[in-house]
Amino acid sequence: MEILKKRLSGMSGGRILDVATGGGSFIKLLAEGFGSFDKIIGVDSCEPGKLEEAQKKFPDERIRLMSMQGEDLTFEDGHFDTVCISNSLHHLNDANMVLQEMKRVLKPGGLLIINEMYCDNQKEPQKTHVHMHHWWADIDSRLGISHHHTFRRQEIVSLLEEAGIEVKEVYDYTEPEADCRNEAELEQLDGVIDTYMQKAQGLPDYETLRTRGEELRIRLKDVGIAGATQLIIIGTKQ
Ligand SMILES: C[S@@+](CC[C@H](N)C(=O)[O-])C[C@H]1O[C@@H](n2cnc3c(N)ncnc32)[C@H](O)[C@@H]1O
After folding, report:
1. Which secondary-structure segment (H or E) carries 232?
2. pLDDT tens digit string along 60-69?
């Protein structure tokens, strides 16, 4: 995401928090993008083993991953200069509560960065990405994993406004055009579909979910796939 890296270059991130960090790919972007930073803490509610694995990618002692719920951050008010969440708002059970917590631990005037794919106004190959996400979300949520359909663009902006975050800058980021029928990528996604089919086995509406999975395989071949447009919002709090 060159647009965000460019925006952050030359700036100091200070103390940075990345909520729902997962494997830490957004931490990598922040560490590369900011001109400098004091520390980056990534938190996630996943099992600690996953975070330990992800931590190995960051030998830099200033970067630490911790097991924590976004709804209940164990940091003091105003502790961070920068707080972020990337492609995870639609994974949260209560996005408003997490945003409130992020706002609480952000110092007044600090930087809040949101990066989130959205589902409306997408080209056909991008719609494949959206359909696939929604199929994953339907299977995960039936299995008790918090995962919702992706938001519409305006819903993301409204979420921030409802949480009392002052929206300063908004960017729509679409990955540079690439081969949307790249064979290696399609093969890899076919494997992901297999994995999700297996996860869905035993669910009461398995047949419906399986049919949707097979339709996705066909769509991948016919239409191809491209990354859905992401909304990057830079905000602050007074
Ligand atoms: C798509 S993944 C993370 C993506 C990552 N931020 C990135 O940009 O590559 C979504 C993550 O949200 C985490 N998550 C879901 N609910 C959470 C919560 N309430 N608190 C913290 N993390 C949560 C999941 O464990 C998962 O790792």
Report:
1. strand 230-236
2. 999 999 999 9
